[in-house]
Structures are given as C-alpha cells and as structure tokens.
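hey m, so remember when u said the tokens were messed up on ur end? i reran from scratch. heres the input so u can diff it against urs
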Amino acid sequence: MVTATPMPYYSVTYNGNGNITGNAPTDSVIYITGSTVTVKGNTGNMTRANYVFLGWSTSSTATTPTYTVYRYTVSPASFAMGSANVTLYAVWQPVINGITLTLNTPATVTITSGGRRVVQFTAPSAGTYDFESSNCGILDPMAYSTATEGYILDDDGGVGCNYKFQRTLDANETFTYYSGTCFENPSENGSYTVIVTDVAKSGSNSNGGNGLIINKADEPLTEAKGDSRKGNELSKAIEDLTNDAPISENDLRELNVKPKKERFSFESEGL
C-alpha cells in the first residue's frame, strides 16, 4: 500500500515591529511552494510616534523595505512562496525635526537651504481634510509626496504662492507628506505656516478652489441677504453655474455674487 505524503503548507505573518497604534495585517491563507502571495498594505492603520511607515521586509532591522507601501499600492505587489513560513516586519523611518499637525491649529514650517520637512496628521475622525500653507512670496511653499523627488500635492496649482490640497482619511489614519519650497528655489530659507481643517465643518471646497461657496453659516437657502430674489431663483443660478451655463456679469450683480479670481470660484458676499 502506497501512502501519499501530505503537501506542506506555509503561512505569512505581518509584524508591526514597534507600532504604537493600529494593527498589523493578518493573512489567513495557507500557501504551497510556488504559489503567489499578495503583499498587504498598512490596512490596520499602524502608527509609531516620530516614525513614518515605509513598507515591509523579512528583516526586523531593515531600514529599506523590500515591499514599499504607497497609499493605494504596494511595490512589488507579490512574491512566490518558498518552502518556509514568512514573517514580514514593518519598516519605519525615523522623523527628524518632524512637524505634527493638529486640527485647526497653524504650525510653523521652517525651511533651510530649500530642504523638506516631514509633516504628519492623524485624523481624529473619518472625513475629508484641507491642508493649506500660508502665502509666502518668493519662498513659494510646496507639498511633496516624498522626501526627495515625488509628485506635488497642490490642487490649486500653486495659485498665490502657497499650496492647498485635500485628503480623505479614515479615523485615526496618519497621513504623511513633505513640506518644502518650490523646486526652482533650492537654496531658499524661511518660514511659513500650515493648517489643516475639516472640510465638512469648515464648508471648504478646495479641489483647486473650484466650486461655489454658497452658505458659510449653514443658513437655509431661502433668500439672499440684501437681495429680493428668493431661494428658487438663487438655486437656478447655482444650477446654471454647476452645469457650465453662461452667466452674465449682470446676473452676478443681481445675485450679489462676485468672481473670486485667485481661486477660480464664486463666493457670495451676501450669504
């Protein structure tokens, strides 16, 4: 009688490697040699004070991840299972002179020789948040996705020599970016402020500043202050704007609305 030898199975374990909050991912799949393992991101929103999460490594002391975790992707995204269990350790980069943002509280960013400062914000609740720097002229504050290269985070295209962008975050999720100066000013020194606000509570619509700011005080849209038009007429004009219908300067004057050129939006003076 021939007895079949059971095929060995292996597992993947994720280790937070010093995380303070959040949880390391779990993988309940059992693998055979040669099968594909899809590497997980920071699905448990791990954080560690004064550190930035970079990704995963099979070494607990690695400073460079084997699998780099971005906001929505991992690179490389997978690996072939070998003939042993695998433990993936979180790789953390220490933050030197980092800046921690607190909701609605301006923080000062001091730049030396055009360098970049790491900025972190942990969302107190799920929502969309505005990140905006002050206008600082020749210093031209910029926000970047990485410490060196990376793409620019600026929904309004740098209008006004500042930066402004939005991020939608989960509760207790930590968002990290790098605040510096325009890449055309590599030797500039100076300071500017950065503030983060909750879009839902501030009524902001950054998205490049596009949109219509209708009601700053959460008042019912029934009648424009200082105007005889009723809410339905105002709503019709708003609908025309959102549908890209042409609106004359006379229409804007009657609604007591003025174009806000620096943000390419419309803001009501009377609301």
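this time it looks ok to me. The chain has three domains: 12-94, 99-209, 212-268. if urs says something different then somethings off w ur setup not the seq
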